[in-house]
C-alpha cells in the first residue's frame, strides 16, 4: 500500500459492555487499561446486526444508509412483503426494488477511491457480512460465498467451511491473522465474530455456555491484537479498534404484533400488503402501502396503549431514532424493557416481536433490536493510531468508527453522520 497507515477492526457480536471483566474477558479488561475505552458507546436503531453492520461500514445512521434492520418490507412489484436481510439474495432484491443497495459509500468503496483495499472476514449472517461491502469494492469472506472487487466470486474452501460459534470464530481468527494481517496487509481489515451473539441467542445470558462464548471471543481479540502489535510494536501505524454492535436483553415473552393489528382492524390479513410488520427482535418497524399510509397515526396510537410497548414513533418522529421519514416505513416500536435480573445475575428483560419465519421459542435467552439500556450498551476500545490509555465518557456511537478509520488513513471523513473519535480529552 502507499502509506504505512492501516486499520484493523474486530467486532464481538452482541458483547455487552457491562459483561467485560477480569474473569470472562481478561484480555479486553487489560486492554481497557492500556488503550482508550469509550464508556458511553451506543448502538443504532434498530439495534440489529445487519443495520449495525451498515452503520459501522458507512459511518451513517439507517436513515441515510437505507438498511432499516434485520428484516425490511420491499415492493418487488406485488406490494410490500417482509424480507429477511440476512438471506444471501437480499442485496439483489433490494437493488431490484429500490435501484441500489446502500445509499452512501462504505469504507471499502472509499478505500478503493484511493487505490486501497478493504478485506472483511465475517462469521455472522450473509446479509450482515455482505452489507460491509454490498457492491464488491473490496474483499468479503463468508461461508455463504466470498467475493472480490467487481463482485468476482472467490472459491475459498476455508471460509466456506466456517460455522457460527466458538470453533468457527477461532478458525476464522487464525486465517485472518496469518493470511490477511500478515500475508496481505490491507489498509483496512475487518473481522466480525459470531460470538457471544450466537450462543447468547440460544442460552441464558450469563449462563456457563454464554460465558464460555464470551471467553472465546476475548481470546480471538487477543490473538488479533498480538498479531497487530508484532507487526507494529509502537502502535503508531496500525489503528486497532475492537467493539460490539449492540448488547442483549433477556426475552420475557413473544408478542404477535401482526395478529394484534389484524384484530384491531388496522391490517387486512396475515399476508396483506397494506400494513407490514418487520420484526427486529425487541422492536418492530412497520411499513405502509400508499393507500394505507393514512393509517400510520392510528397504528402508533394503538401500539402505545399496549403494556409491552416502549417508545413508539410515527412519521416525522422517526428522525429522532435515526430512521427516515419519507419511505413506506412509517411507524417503529421498541419493546419496553425493565431491570429485572435473570437467574445468572444479568439484568434486563424485554419482549420480542414474534417472527413467523423463526417460530422457535427464545424465551429466557438473549435478544436485541430495540432501545433498552443493555441492548444499547456495546463496548468500544481503540488502541494505537494516537489513542492513549484513558477512559472517554463522552457519548460515542457505531457511526463514529468509520470516520475514525478514515482520519487515521488520511482520507476525507467530513460527510458521515458520525464524528471521528476524540484522541484526547
Ligand atoms: Zn449483532
Give a quick precis of the structure.
The chain is an alpha/beta fold and 425 residues long.
Explain what this protein looks like in three dimensions.
With 425 residues, the protein is of the alpha/beta class. It has helices at residues 26-33, 49-58, 62-65, 90-98, 107-113, 126-130, 157-160, 166-184, 197-200, 208-231, 257-263, 296-304, 401-408, and strands spanning 6-12, 36-38, 41-42, 71-75, 80-84, 118-122, 139-141, 146-148, 152-154, 188-193, 238-243, 249-255, 275-279, 283-288, 309-314, 329-335, 337-341, 347-353, 366-367, 380-383, 390-392, 396-397. It has 13 helices and 22 strands. The strands form 6 sheets. The chain has an 8-stranded mixed β-sheet, sandwiched between helices. The chain has a 4-stranded mixed β-sheet with strand order 17-18-12-19, with no helix packed on it. Helix 8 (166-184) packs parallel to helix 10 (208-231). It is globular. The two termini are 32 Å apart. The structure holds zinc ion.
Bound molecules: zinc ion
Spatial gap, N to C terminus? 32 Å
What does the average pLDDT come to?
97
What proportion of the residues form beta strands (DSSP E)?
15-25%
Q: Tally the helices.
A: 13
Global outline: globular
Amino acid at each position: 500500500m502507499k502509506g504505512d497507515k492501516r486499520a484493523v477492526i474486530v467486532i464481538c457480536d452482541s458483547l455487552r459492555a457491562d459483561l467485560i471483566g477480569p474473569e470472562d474477558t481478561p484480555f479486553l479488561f487489560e486492554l481497557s487499561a492500556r488503550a482508550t475505552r469509550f464508556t458511553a458507546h451506543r448502538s443504532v436503531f434498530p439495534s440489529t446486526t445487519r443495520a449495525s453492520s451498515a452503520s459501522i461500514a458507512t459511518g451513517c445512521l439507517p436513515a441515510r444508509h437505507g438498511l432499516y434492520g434485520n428484516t425490511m418490507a420491499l415492493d418487488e412489484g406485488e406490494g410490500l412483503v417482509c424480507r429477511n436481510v440476512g438471506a444471501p439474495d437480499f442485496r439483489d432484491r433490494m437493488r431490484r426494488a429500490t435501484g441500489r443497495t446502500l445509499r452512501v459509500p462504505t469504507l471499502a468503496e472509499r478505500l478503493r477511491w484511493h487505490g486501497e483495499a478493504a478485506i472483511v472476514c465475517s462469521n455472522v449472517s450473509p446479509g450482515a457480512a455482505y452489507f460491509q461491502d454490498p457492491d464488491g469494492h473490496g474483499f468479503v469472506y463468508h461461508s455463504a460465498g466470498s467475493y472480490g472487487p467487481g463482485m468476482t466470486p472467490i472459491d475459498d474452501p476455508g471460509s466456506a467451511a466456517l460455522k457460527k460459534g466458538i470453533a468457527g470464530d477461532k478458525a476464522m481468527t487464525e486465517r485472518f491473522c496469518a493470511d490477511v494481517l500478515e500475508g496481505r496487509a490491507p489498509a483496512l481489515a475487518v473481522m466480525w465474530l459470531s460470538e457471544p451473539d450466537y450462543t447468547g441467542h440460544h442460552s441464558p445470558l450469563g449462563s456457563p455456555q454464554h460465558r464460555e462464548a464470551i471467553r472465546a471471543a476475548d481470546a480471538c481479540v487477543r490473538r488479533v491484537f498480538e498479531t497487530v502489535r508484532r507487526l507494529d510494536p509502537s502502535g503508531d501505524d496500525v489503528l486497532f479498534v475492537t467493539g460490539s454492535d449492540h448488547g442483549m436483553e433477556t426475552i420475557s415473552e413473544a408478542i404477535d404484533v401482526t395478529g394484534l393489528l389484524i384484530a384491531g382492524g388496522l391490517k387486512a390479513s396475515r399476508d396483506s400488503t397494506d400494513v407490514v410488520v418487520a420484526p427486529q427482535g425487541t422492536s418492530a418497524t412497520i411499513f405502509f402501502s400508499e393507500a394505507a399510509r393514512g393509517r400510520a397515526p392510528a397504528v402508533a396510537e394503538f401500539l402505545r396503549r399496549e403494556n409491552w410497548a416502549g417508545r413508539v414513533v410515527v412519521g416525522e418522529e422517526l428522525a429522532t431514532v435515526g430512521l427516515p421519514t419519507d419511505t413506506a416505513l412509517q411507524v417503529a416500536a421498541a419493546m419496553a424493557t425493565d431491570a429485572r435480573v435473570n437467574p445468572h445475575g444479568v439484568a434486563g428483560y424485554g419482549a420480542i416481536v414474534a417472527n413467523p419465519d423463526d417460530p422457535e421459542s427464545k424465551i429466557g435467552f438473549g435478544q436485541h433490536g430495540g432501545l433498552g439500556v443493555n441492548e444499547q450498551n456495546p463496548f468500544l476500545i481503540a488502541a494505537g493510531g494516537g489513542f492513549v490509555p484513558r477512559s472517554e465518557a463522552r457519548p460515542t456511537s457505531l457511526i463514529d468508527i468509520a470516520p475514525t478509520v478514515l482520519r487515521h488513513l488520511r482520507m476525507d471523513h467530513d460527510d458521515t453522520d458520525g464524528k471521528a473519535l476524540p484522541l484526547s480529552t
